[in-house]
Amino acid sequence: MHLSDGELEALLDGEASPERRRAATAHLAVCSVCATRAAGLTTAQQVTAELLAALDAPALALSVDTIIARAADASRRSAAPRRRIALAAGVTALVVAVTAAAAIPGSPVRRYVARLLGGPRPAEHPAPQGLQGPASGVAFVPSGPVAVVFWEPQTGGAIQIAFGDTPSLRITHVGGRAAYILTTEGVAVDNRGSSARYDITIPESVTRVEVRIGARLVFAKEGSHIATLGARDTVGVYVIPFPLIGRSSP
Amino acid sequence: VETLREDAPLSTPEFDVSFREAFDAHHASLLRYLARLSGDPALAADVAQETFVKLYRRGEMPDDLRSWLAAVATNMWRDEYRRGARRLRLLTHHALDTVHSDPAPAPDAELLRGERRGAIRALLGTLAPREQRLLLLRHEGYSYRELAAAVGVEVSSIGTLLARAHATLLAEWRRRTDAPE
Predict the structure, then answer these.
(1) What DSSP designation does B39 have?
(2) How far is residue B152's CA from residue B162's CA, in Å, rounded to a whole number?
(3) Beta bridge partners of A172
(4) Is the pLDDT score of A118 beyond 50?
(5) Which of A10, A76, A222, A247 meets the CB 3.0–4.6 Å disulfide criterion with B159?
(6) What number is the ipTM of this complex?
(7) At what angle do helices A32-55 and B129-138 cross, to 10 degrees?
(8) Phi, psi of B163 (to 5 degrees)
(9) B79-100 pLDDT per residue, tens
(10) Shortest Cα distance from B178 to chain A (angstroms)?
(11) What is the DSSP string of B70-82?
(12) Strand, coil or helix: what is A176?
């Protein structure tokens, strides 16, 4: 009597009871058929693990503080239908994304949006709604290289970048409005019309960081090398004043 | 889009501590499970976040936390999927990728990774939804008891279902990769 597939799987998974494990192990020692099947199942498990691992892309990570804040906020505003909020955020993200793509000269999205909207200049699109109010920043745990991309230069304000012994990359803003969109590369900041100052804390463990304003690279970290258009202050914070960048780029 | 709020109130200290411990222990696994299940990291992050928000609002830890997280997250993902959120988000991220990759073309390696992911996702699609979930959760280290509670099957059936899923996946992968172009 051979072992069933389920018994073999449970044995390999360490889920067989001690009694079943002893019996199955004794059987495998004398039954080449089941031993071969067990080897095949082991291979199937290993290949599956490799295939699943290959599915993993850089993940958008979560912040426990954000979740707690959301939970508390949801408790306060339980009357607000979550679905509508989620949909509004999704639509807003889509508007921002498409408009950002449309802002790039030569982008096919630019032509598509122009056709959809009857040809207005992308810069004339209204700012997205729904990502404002008391929101003050964004935090997430990066799983690889990070790009922080600001929509456009500002006439005032600054970007301040510090590195810390923290798992989360955190961006907060003061003195203006901003909206954030987490992307597969990091975070996009909709700072149109804003004069805010942005404080970015980056985990020291992140080896590759880019901060761009539009298409212009204003800060880069590659390993231990850092390049910036700004300056490093006495406490190790990199300060990039927006007026330094100007409004001519890209 | 996840935002920090300046006016976020504090929770009770005891539950806050246990919640943070639960989050630290399980959020990465739940996120990975959802990303593999959905193929959409942004949707996975949203669903995982909402799952933990739901846990926080619950105010107490369930007896079987991991099973609870997986079951709630899977149901939430199904709802999101049905409502078309996935399609919307994929469009969003496609557009954002366009921004970030312009003007430099995507590296060949990334294209190959994308193609490989697509092939593996198609492979997973050959399994029944229940087998997919079992397989993904098992590869997150869920015990048979946790799997049974999360997916809603008898513990005694788990070994058989997993063996079949593993064998099907391997056979189909070999068939596809050995097939001539």
Answers:
(1) S
(2) 14
(3) A137, A199
(4) no
(5) A10
(6) 0.80
(7) 90
(8) -60, -45
(9) 877 766 444 444 444 333 333 3
(10) 15
(11) HHHHHHHHHHHHH
(12) coil
Weakest mean pLDDT among A34-48, A155-169, B90-104: B90-104
**Encoded tokens for B60:** 């107490």
Among A17-31, B42-56, B110-124, the range with the most confident prediction by mean pLDDT is A17-31
For residue A189, how many other CB atoms are within 10 A of its CB?
Answer: 26
Please report the pLDDT score of residue A74 as a whole number: 66
B16 interaction partners in chain A (CB closer than 8 Å): 68
Q: CB count, 10 Å around CB of B150?
A: 23
d(CA A215, CA B3): 25
CB neighbours of residue B8 within 10 Å: 17
The shortest C-alpha distance from A216 to chain B (Å) reads: 11
Cβ–Cβ < 8 Å for B8, A100: no
Q: Does the distance separating the beta carbons of B56 and A68 come in below 8 Å?
A: yes
Distance CA B44, CA B40 (A): 6
Quick count: other Cβ atoms within 10 Å of Cβ A207?
12
Looking at this protein, which amino acid is placed at residue B149?
A
Q: Which residues of B touch A183 (CB under 8 A)?
A: 93, 96-97, 100
A149 burial (CB, 10 Å; 0-12 / 13-18 / 19+) is buried
| pLDDT band of A3, cuts 50, 70, 90 | very high
Distance from CA of A172 to the nearest CA of B (A): 8
Taking contacts as CB-CB distances below 8 angstroms, the residues of chain A near B139 are 48-49, 52
